[in-house]
Amino acid sequence: MATDDGTYEYKLQHGDDFGRTYFRLFDGLAVSSLGVGTYLGDPTDEVDARYRDAIATALESGVNVVDTAINYRCQRSERAVGRAIEDADVDRDAVFVSTKGGFLPFDGERPEDPGEYVKREFVDAGLVEREDLARGSHCIAPDFIDDQVDRSLDNLGVDEIDLYYVHNPETQLHARSREEVYDQLEETFTRLEERAAEGDISKYGVATWNALRVPQSDDQYLSLPEIVSRARKAAKAAENTATHLRAIQLPFNVFMADAFTVESHEGPDGPQSALWFAHEAGLNVFTSASIAQGDLAAEIPDAVGERLEGDTTVQRAINFARSAPGVTSSLVGMSRPEHVEENVGAGRFDPLGADAFDAVFE
Questions:
Q1: What InterPro entries does its record include (predicted)?
Q2: Domains with residue ranges and CATH for the chain
C-alpha cells in the first residue's frame, strides 16, 4: 500500500521538477495532482502493452496516482496497472492505486451474448441477486462488492487497495428509489468499513458521473451530505472509530464545470457545490474526464485558455482541472507513452490561484 514515508520519499525525488502545489495531501500521503486514467482502449494485448509502458513511464516521471476499475477493458486495465507497478523502477509504497466496483465486468474480452454471460457468471453463480441488478449490468450490493474487492486485489497483484470506489451508484436509480439507493450504499459502506479494518482497502469513496454535479431536481441526483451521513452510520455499525470514506470522483473540465457551479448540496450555511461541500467535509476530490476524453486536446475557449499556463492546449486543460478548489488530483487517460511526456509537462506550471480561478466564471 502507499505509505507516508514512501510517498514523501517519492515527492523528494521528483518535487523539484514541478510547479507549486503539484504534490498534495491525501490523509498524510503525498500524491501527484496529475493521475493516470485507464478507461479508454480496446481489450487487446496491444493496448495492454501500451498501458503498461505508459503507466511505468508516468510512475518514473513524477506521477504516483493511478486510477482504474474492474470493468475497464474487461478487467485488462487492472491487470495492466498491476504489471506496470511491478515493472516500474518505483517502490509500491510510493504509488497510490485506486479502483472501482459496481459494473459487472467481463473477463478478458466482450462475450458474444453479454446478457447470457451475466446470467451464467453472476446470477446463476449466486454472486448477484437478480433484484439487485440495474440495467442488467450494475450492482452495488454488499456481497457483490465484497467479491469485486477480492478480484481487484488479485488483478492488481497488491495486498491492499489505497482507495476503493463504489462505481456510479446513480445507475441504481434506474431500478429503485433514491432512499433505497442510500440504504444500499449504507450496507455496502459497512462492508467496506469491515474490509478497511481487515487491511484489504485503506480508504473508500464514491466515483460518479452525474450524481453529484446535477441539480436536486434531476433524476440522477444523489446528496453528498446524505452519502457522508450514511458512511458515518456504516462506520458505527462496523465498530470503527471513524469513517474510512475519504474521496469522491466526478467529471470536471472546461466544458463540464458543474461540480463548481451547481449548488445542490446542503451545507451549514445553505446550498453548496460538490467541490465546496467536499472540501469542507474533508473529502478529497479526484476529477475524471479532465481533458474531456481527448476533446480538449484541440481547442479550449480563449477566455479560459489565456488565463492558464502551459505550452499546449492539453496542458492548459489539465491545469484548469488541477486549479479547481478542493481537487487533490486530476485524472487523464494515458494509454501511450508519448502522451505521458506532454501530460506530465502540465505539472511543471503553477495552477491558478483561488481568485484567478473564480475570475474565470465572472
A1: AKR2_Oxidoreductase, NAD(P)_OxRdtase_dom_sf, NADP_OxRdtase_dom
A2: 4-356 (3.20.20.100)
